[in-house]
Amino acid sequence: MSTATSNARGIAGMLFATASYVVCDTFMKLVTLAGVPPFEVLFVRGIFAVAWCAGLVLVLGQWRGVARGFTPASLARAAFETAGVMFYIVALSMMPIADVVAIEQIAPLIFILIIATIGRERIGLVRFGLIAAGFVGALLVAQPDASGFSTAALLAFASALFLALRDVAGRKVSSDIPALVATLATNIVVLAASGIGMVVTETVVLPSARNTLYLVASGFFVTLGHFGVFMAYRLGAPAVIAPFFYSFAVWAMLSGLIVFNEWPNPLALLGIATIVASGLGIILVDRRKPRPIEPILPE
Known about the structure:
This protein has 299 residues and is mainly alpha-helical. Helix content is 74%, strand content 0%.
């Protein structure tokens, strides 16, 4: 297989993965709009996500390594991701999907700042400028008023922070652990935490048959998303594949328009474009370095 063909397949895999994540989030938002509480949505989806992911691990013959997904480092990573996902689902229930996704995409920028702080790595003026632009874009999306940020926007920012911390913790996770095994472990932790959140803070609402099917599909598509990312980076060069992660914003806007009849206002559109441009700029700058920083993936 030629390099060009391999990269083309990797790009297709990444486009497929980001579309799958947005389909997952679309189904979850539909269920929250039907009156099912956010943590319950995440818990029920988690049941199916664990089932789908476990099936994929079995089919790919990776089940022998499942125990390695529960090492202290892996569990620390899963804990940060769980916090990020729980903030995300609540924000998603309150805010247009394109806006939540856009704010979420500042996670790689936060990640760079954290690594630069704790690792004393030099950011450089260009990267710092791109990071600053990304945060300005997030402010344009959040659009705080005289009373400050909305609760939904603050939750989306909190989600981005915890996803950044997840990838900081992920640097300690052994590369010998297969990506899908780590995903399965994370799904199990998310399932347990969302179950606790549901019992402690929510009144359980029995989902309708349609909403249950939506959550079955949501669990399936989030698993497809993880698998798509896994295959994309296997098939193509990371520096070529990484920019296509930002197709996530395009899919989210299409979902908002087609499914929810939502379209970001002009300021939010400018903010989304700024965040995407900032992320792409970081990737292009980091291509010159031996170890480029890859985008942080959503749950």
